[in-house]
């Protein structure tokens, strides 16, 4: 599993959905442009990363944050994200991470959700967001925020590693 990290990312939207995957025995690599520490917020946290690498992860996590617009304008990040998303088994976009994918043309003809304050941005792009907390179209799973991302990650684990899924009481 790979998670995209960037300056201005919402820390909870990176770290919260990783929990269900790690509980199922998966490891997660946090990748960023150039590697090193990236400043997340809510809560403030310096997130250590490794440089972008070409990979084909089972799951790619694309979290939201105020930095998503900068990423959408960066051609190198767009090439990396489009390539990795195209090779990923499943992509989980959280909050404005859905807008980042939409800006790269990766949500065409798919239903998505995102942060409720970003609904106008989806409408302007011509791909209106749904008001559901989680939208699962198979390859692309979108979550409205960090709490929804935990449930979305749990659903993905149940689908791709049912033997490792946890029961509601946290037992296997």
Strand segment count: 8
End-to-end Cα distance, whole Å, is: 21 Å
Helix share bin: 25-40%
| CATH superfamily (homologous) name | Class I glutamine amidotransferase (GATase) domain
The secondary-structure class comes to alpha/beta
- What is the arithmetic mean of pLDDT? 88
How many DSSP H or I helices? 7
Strand order of the largest sheet: 3-4-2-1-5-6-8-7
Radius of gyration: 15 Å
Subunit organisation of the chains: single chain
Q: What does it look like?
A:
The protein is of the alpha/beta class. It has one domain: Class I glutamine amidotransferase (GATase) domain (Rossmann fold), CATH 3.40.50. The chain has 7 helices and 8 strands; from the N terminus they run βααββββααβααββα. An 8-stranded mixed β-sheet has the order 3-4-2-1-5-6-8-7, with helices on both faces. A hairpin with a 4-residue loop joins strand 3 and strand 4. The protein is globular and about 40 Å long.
């Amino acid at each position: 599993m790979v998670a995209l990290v960037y300056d201005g990312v919402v820390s909870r939207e990176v770290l919260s959905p990783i929990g269900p995957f790690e509980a199922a025995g998966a490891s997660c690599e946090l990748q960023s442009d150039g590697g090193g520490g990236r400043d997340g917020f809510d809560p403030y946290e310096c997130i250590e990363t490794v440089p972008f690498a070409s990979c084909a992860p089972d799951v790619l996590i694309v979290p939201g944050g105020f930095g998503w617009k900068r990423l959408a304008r960066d051609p190198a990040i767009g090439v990396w994200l489009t390539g990795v998303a195209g090779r990923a088994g499943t992509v989980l976009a959280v909050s404005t991470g859905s807008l980042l994918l939409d800006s790269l043309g990766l949500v065409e003809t798919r239903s998505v959700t995102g942060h409720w304050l970003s609904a106008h941005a989806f409408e302007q792009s011509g791909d209106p967001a749904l008001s559901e907390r989680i939208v699962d179209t198979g390859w692309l799973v979108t979550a409205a925020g960090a709490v929804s991302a935990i449930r979305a990650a749990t659903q993905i684990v149940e689908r791709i590693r049912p033997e490792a899924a946890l029961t509601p009481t946290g037992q296997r």
